[in-house]
User: Which sequence fits this backbone?
């Protein structure tokens, strides 16, 4: 008999974190599960740590070379046998009752996808600094349905919103198989957002449970110092491709939402294409980008007050959460291997 849930864990050089992730999956109150770890060519002891577990519900698959997180997730999807698919990043963890609670709720509302709120954890912190819903500024008190337009409208780069592209839904495996849905292996950042979009455009019934059962961990270097240019480029390309679908063209509200998101992303991309070379001392590259984007200075001036405010909070007042909050939850999207 197939398990109720398949937990898939893509892993790459996370020897210090993966044991906690695996333990949180194996020690769920819902016991009828399988856990599939796909190591994506790690050069540390990630594989050895994963293989040290003796629980028969755990399977460890090893990619001989690094293929990217999407390819690792797809490899796990293709061997998964569970009624539901649950994704767990190898540096995150579940609350013990997460799977039991979400599967029960999903059955009650006849969901194809169900997500919970996320606890947001900073490196070395002992407790969450916030949750995804708290950061949205709009309290949600009961389980609610999520349609594709709302999903897009509330997940705009560097703007306040729910940002459900960060969430980690459970997916009904039958729905994924029926529509041939997998992760896009050309996208290395923001993969969860686009998998959700593929499901929603096919009519998936998506629900959000406002209680948090997922702990979303921010490792060193994952916030302020990561380049935004590659992810924004990928987002723009993926959005352009998505907009070309006939089913999207026939949905004016969705077209408006995606077009707005695309315009915001392009504006931010133009900004970071100047700022990042300046930080790296690549003055000729920065000058070239300024010539391409004459609105850079007006954009920079509009951001200047927030930039100074963050630095005063961080360096003079010792508020180490200032970058987390002021840079918006958008910056917490994890980059992949």
Assistant:
């Amino acid at each position: 008999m197939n398990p109720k849930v398949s937990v898939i864990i893509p892993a790459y050089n996370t020897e210090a974190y993966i044991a906690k992730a695996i333990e949180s999956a194996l020690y769920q109150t819902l016991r009828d599960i399988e856990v599939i770890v796909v190591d994506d060519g790690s050069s540390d002891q990630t594989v050895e740590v994963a293989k040290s577990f003796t629980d028969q519900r755990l399977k460890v698959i090893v990619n001989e070379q690094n293929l990217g997180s999407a390819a690792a997730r797809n490899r796990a999807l293709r061997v998964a046998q569970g009624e539901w698919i649950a994704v767990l990043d190898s540096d995150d963890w579940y609350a013990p009752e997460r799977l039991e609670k979400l599967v029960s709720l999903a059955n009650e509302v006849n969901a194809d996808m169900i997500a919970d709120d996320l606890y947001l954890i900073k490196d070395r912190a002992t407790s969450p600094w916030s949750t995804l819903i708290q950061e949205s500024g709009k309290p949600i008190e009961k389980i609610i349905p999520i349609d594709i337009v709302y999903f897009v409208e509330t997940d705009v780069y560097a703007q306040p919103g729910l940002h459900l592209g960060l969430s980690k839904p459970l997916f009904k495996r039958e729905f994924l198989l029926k529509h041939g849905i997998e992760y896009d292996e050309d996208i290395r950042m923001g993969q969860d957002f686009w998998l959700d979009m593929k499901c929603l455009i096919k009519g998936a019934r998506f629900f959000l449970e406002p209680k948090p059962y997922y702990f979303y961990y921010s490792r060193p270097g994952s916030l302020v110092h990561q380049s935004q240019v590659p992810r924004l480029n990928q987002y723009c390309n993926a959005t352009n491709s998505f907009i070309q679908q006939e089913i999207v063209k026939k949905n004016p509200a969705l077209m408006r939402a995606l077009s707005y998101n695309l315009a915001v992303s392009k504006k931010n991309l133009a900004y970071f294409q100047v700022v990042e070379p300046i930080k790296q001392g690549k003055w000729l590259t920065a000058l070239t980008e300024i010539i391409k984007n004459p609105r850079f200075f007006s954009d920079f001036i509009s951001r200047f007050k927030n930039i100074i405010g963050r630095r005063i909070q961080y360096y003079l007042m010792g508020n180490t959460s200032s970058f987390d909050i002021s840079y918006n939850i958008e910056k917490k999207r994890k980059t992949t291997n």
